[in-house]
Design a protein that fits this description.
- It is a single chain.
- With 925 residues, the protein is mostly beta strands.
- It is 7% helix and 55% strand.
- The chain contains nine helices and 47 strands.
- The strands form seven sheets. It has a 29-stranded antiparallel beta sheet that branches.
- The two termini are 57 Å apart.
Length: 925
């Protein structure tokens, strides 16, 4: 049993109790009431205070001190990170800063999209990002995804790439649960604290201007942010405004293996082999422009009443071009690998077994088959997308103390996010050519017998037209929320500090609305409407080529250099304007919506004495009401268009969860805190898991069967034990043990199904995936955290997390190819940060590492991200009291992302995102 496993390790905590008191001159009070005052979230700043005399400590050491004080004061098991100064967070990305915390991992992209050069989601203690909750000042925040596959996937994880670090004051990660904190995070909850004007000195102003350079895109882009805050002399009314404009040029080189299909009796050998359906040389370029701002207004007419209004808007333009020139293995295996047929062109090949699966590790096909039929060994997709993601939020909040010891708190707000691909154009052509590949290292060496070596030559460009696809994908995410609670303190009680009761209601809607493009030229393969010829070479890459090729250094840094020609968007649009032009129609198979109403009631008692113990006991009861809408070709049609006949399928359900929780902190000595916590927690299924879109990939013969509105949520019991030794200022040594006893997982099964599609009018067998409830599992581990100023301004921060997460043996369903592994869990995670700071310079080097983890399932193929470590650095030079020069660097060692399938020898993708550098100036008053 997991509880026994954790408690049997509790003796480890005793080791810390006898640790030497390294800094006996520093005393730490034993009661919460006598702890030193903590600056409000992120309000650390340099310069003078309101009186003009008091100098406020600033920089890395002040940030550490404030973070540790806030962590120490909390009744929960938590981690805190605080801004170094107004507008200066430790990292350029909020997710990067979260990844420095003990037990927190960051993810650069989804399994469908692969990893990009900016972290965007967070996992806590080995749980999938979908199982964590993100709040802004304690309330919900809608989100949007810029990448089209993430838009269609409709998850619950927050996209931190939209959140500029300049507007953040501090971040809290709650690793234990508490009754007055919204449910939804099995792994934990992240609370982002913004700045408020009454917490800052009057006349606060900060301006940061930087240039950012990526060594792979070789482009400079500007970034500007500003924060201004004012309050009246009485400190009863204040206004804060912040704005930002941040541009960044991305380029990603990579090699991708898009799905592994199987072939029975390959080459009449009697052996079933698995092979890469497509092997692509992927060239991705993008310019991200993130802009927006925040406004906060505070009014505190009396000591008993405080009113706050906050608003946030952020929009990230994310137009991108994704080109992939691919070895068409699935075509060659299907058409050119059966002995005795006219198309038989298979030459030498090798196989090797990994994990009970026999893989086709190398193979070659000639350009012409035994009977004279041509081989089609290469296909290219040039995809142009206009995309953006946005979030806005408005909240009104009131705190009223009608009597001594009584506090009434209420808020009401609305938040809306949107992920949108407003236009997608995919131009697909292919070549008559042989192909050979050899799996080697982290990729494959490709050659194309019969294909001209000059990609700009007429013979190369005169290829065959397969089709054009596209349309739009709009994914709105909307929520109305309101909450009210009452807290009554009991100062005369010996053990009961306060009782808090409250209720919260949210109404959420998440949808995906898709359209598909229609063009008469897609009928070229049957009968070209202009030329009347059954010859797909009437249209090809030559029609849309404007002289561009991949750069000369493309894929060199991952060891598989290549060069090929690129389509031009203007020329694509010109071709699409012929043959009657294009039209778009609603595409029901890729559309759905989920409406979810959540109603929660909670009660919590704060307990403790004035000397050595404190905590809380609570109960949260929540009702979830779900209504889903999907579309099916198998019911009475309500939508009839050129994509077929589809009917609306509505479903829904409601259920209750009762969630008890308890947190206890004991001051064993003046410096040593012992913590324990237990709670029942839950996370709801992802929106696409409830009502996902049906989709198939005609090239890889894979797909998704859609959602399942009858899914139960993830449910678990959560256990925590921790010891925290605050042995000196800015210093901590802590050990933590944790466990999740998960009673229900949602997993994915795969099966073969027969479908007819536009490119397969006679039908084909597709390997499709669908979500199901998959039984229980566990996640248990340990954490160690050390923070220590050393000498002369130098200091170190180090932490390590071990996490062992598995599904139970009986929880692996038939047809489930994922085994016992759990998405997002790295067994080993560690961070090491060294810093130096004096009156002139503040600098930091930080290295983060996480071991391999399963990143999900893509094209019916489970995939893992290999162990990844990244070195980042920052430098701040104070020229004057108000002026500083800054420099930041990300991925200094040019680490690359490698994904594999089951065994590290079977590649899924290998990406190079390059290094990124920032230089600039900061002005602070």
């Amino acid at each position: 049993m997991i509880v026994r496993d954790v408690l049997s390790s509790a003796s480890v905590l005793a080791l810390i109790v006898s640790a030497p008191a390294w800094a006996q001159d520093a005393t730490t009070p034993t009661t919460t009431q006598s702890l030193p005052p903590i600056p409000p979230a992120g309000q650390i700043r340099s310069g003078v205070g309101d009186t003009g005399d008091d100098i406020v400590v600033t920089g890395i050491r002040a940030s550490i001190e404030a973070s540790l004080a806030q962590k120490r004061k909390s009744d929960m098991v938590s981690e805190v990170i605080t801004a170094q100064d107004i507008g200066k967070f430790p990292d350029k990305n909020v997710a990067d800063s979260l990844g420095r915390l003990t037990g927190v991992n960051v993810v650069t992209g989804s399994s469908a999209g692969g990893g990009f050069g900016e972290n965007q989601s967070v996992s806590i203690r080995g749980t999938d990002p979908e199982l964590n909750l993100t709040l802004l000042d304690g309330h919900s925040l809608a989100t949007g995804d810029w990448f089209v596959l993430d838009q269609a996937n409709g998850g619950r994880s927050f996209n931190f790439s939209m959140f500029p670090s300049e507007i953040v004051g501090s971040l809290e990660v709650y690793k234990s649960a508490q009754a007055d904190i919204p449910e939804g995070g099995i792994g934990g909850t992240i609370n982002v604290h913004s700045r408020l004007p009454l917490d800052l000195p009057a006349g606060t102003f900060n301006l940061t201007a930087q240039g950012v350079y990526n060594d792979l895109s070789a482009k400079w882009k500007p970034q500007v942010s500003a924060v201004a805050s004012w309050k009246n002399k009485a400190g009863t009314f204040g206004v804060l405004a912040a704005g930002f404009y941040e541009a960044r040029a991305f380029r990603r080189d990579g090699q991708e293996f898009l799905g592994y299909a199987t072939q029975e009796n390959f080459n009449n050998s009697g052996v079933e082999v698995a092979y890469p359906a497509l092997i692509g040389e992927a060239y991705f370029t993008q310019e991200r422009i993130r802009k927006g701002g925040t406004v906060s207004v505070q009014f505190k007419p009396t000591d008993r009443l405080e009113l706050t209004a906050t608003g946030l808007y952020t929009r990230m333009s994310a137009n991108n071009v994704n080109v992939n020139s691919m070895a068409w293995t699935s075509k060659l295996v299907g058409d050119s690998s059966t002995p005795g047929t006219p198309g038989y062109a298979l030459g030498e090949y090798t196989t090797k077994a990994y994990g009970g699966v026999t893989y086709l590790t190398s193979a070659s096909w000639s350009a012409t088959g035994a009977g004279g039929l041509p081989s089609y060994g290469r296909v290219q997709d040039d995809i142009f997308r206009s995309a953006f993601s946005s979030t806005w939020n408005g909240t009104l909040e009131a705190k009223w103390k009608p009597a001594d010891g009584m506090t009434v708190h209420a808020n009401i707000g609305y938040t809306e996010g949107r992920g949108a691909t407003t236009q997608e154009r995919g131009w697909e052509t292919y070549w008559q050519t042989g192909m050979s590949y050899v799996l080697q290292g982290k990729g494959a060496v490709l050659t194309y017998p019969g294909l001209p070596t000059d990609p700009t030559s007429a013979a190369y460009l005169k290829n065959y037209f397969s089709g054009v696809w596209g349309g739009s994908t709009i994914s709105p995410d909307k929520e109305f929320y309101t909450q009210g609670d009452l807290e009554q303190e009991f100062p005369d009680s010996g053990w009961l500090r306060a009782i808090k009761t409250g209720a919260r209601f949210t109404s959420h809607r998440r949808a995906v609305d898709s359209t598909g493009i229609l063009w008469a030229g897609n009928e070229t393969a049957l009968s070209d409407p202009v030329y009347g010829a059954v010859d797909t070479r009437q249209i090809g890459l030559f029609d849309v080529y404007a002289g561009a090729t991949t750069p000369g250094n493309f894929n060199r840094r991952i060891g598989v250099p290549s060069r090929y020609s690129l389509a031009d968007l203007d020329k694509v649009e010109a071709v699409l304007a012929t043959r009657g032009g294009t039209s778009e129609a609603f595409y029901p198979p890729s559309s759905f919506s989920v409406k979810e109403n959540d109603t929660a009631f909670y009660a919590m008692a704060r307990v403790g004495n004035d000397s050595n113990w404190r905590g809380n006991l609570g109960l949260r009861s929540v009702r979830t009401d779900i209504d889903t809408l999907q579309y099916s070709p198998n019911v009475a049609p309500t939508i009839v268009n050129k994509f077929g006949e589809f009917g609306a399928v509505r479903d829904g359900r409601a259920y209750w969860d009762v969630l008890p929780s308890a947190n206890l902190t004991y001051n064993a000595t003046d410096r040593l805190l012992l913590r324990g916590a237990v709670a029942k927690v839950m996370s709801r299924p992802g929106y696409a898991q409830l009502a996902g879109a049906f989709s198939v990939d005609d090239l890889s013969l894979t797909g998704s069967a859609g959602g399942n509105p009858r899914l139960d949520p993830f449910r678990a019991w959560q256990f925590n034990l921790a010891a925290e030794f605050y042995y000196a200022p800015q210093s901590l040594f802590s050990i933590g043990l944790f466990a999740l006893d998960i009673s229900n997982y949602i997993t994915t099964t795969t099966s073969k199904r027969f479908y007819r599609t536009v490119l397969h009018p006679n039908g084909a067998n597709f390997l499709v995936e669908e979500p199901v409830n998959g039984g229980g599992g566990f996640n248990k581990g340990a954490e160690v955290n050390w923070q220590q100023p050393i000498w002369g301004g130098f200091g170190v921060i180090a932490n390590y997390t071990y996490s062992d997460a598995k599904r139970n043996l009986g929880a692996v369903a038939d047809g489930d190819r994922l085994g016992r592994d759990i998405d997002g869990n790295s067994k080993h995670t560690w961070n090491l940060t060294g810093y130096f700071e004096n009156d002139l310079v503040s600098t930091r080097l930080a290295y983060s590492y996480r071991s391999k983890f399963r990143s999900g399932i893509d094209r019916a193929t489970p995939m893992w991200q290999d162990g990844y470590g990244q070195l980042d650095g920052s430098l701040l030079v104070h020229v004057t009291r108000h002026l500083a020069l800054s420099a930041d660097a990300q991925n200094i060692g040019n680490a690359k992302l490698y994904y594999f399938v089951g065994d590290r020898a079977i590649p899924r993708s290998y990406y190079d995102n390059g290094r990124t550098f920032y230089v600039g100036v900061r002005v602070t008053y």
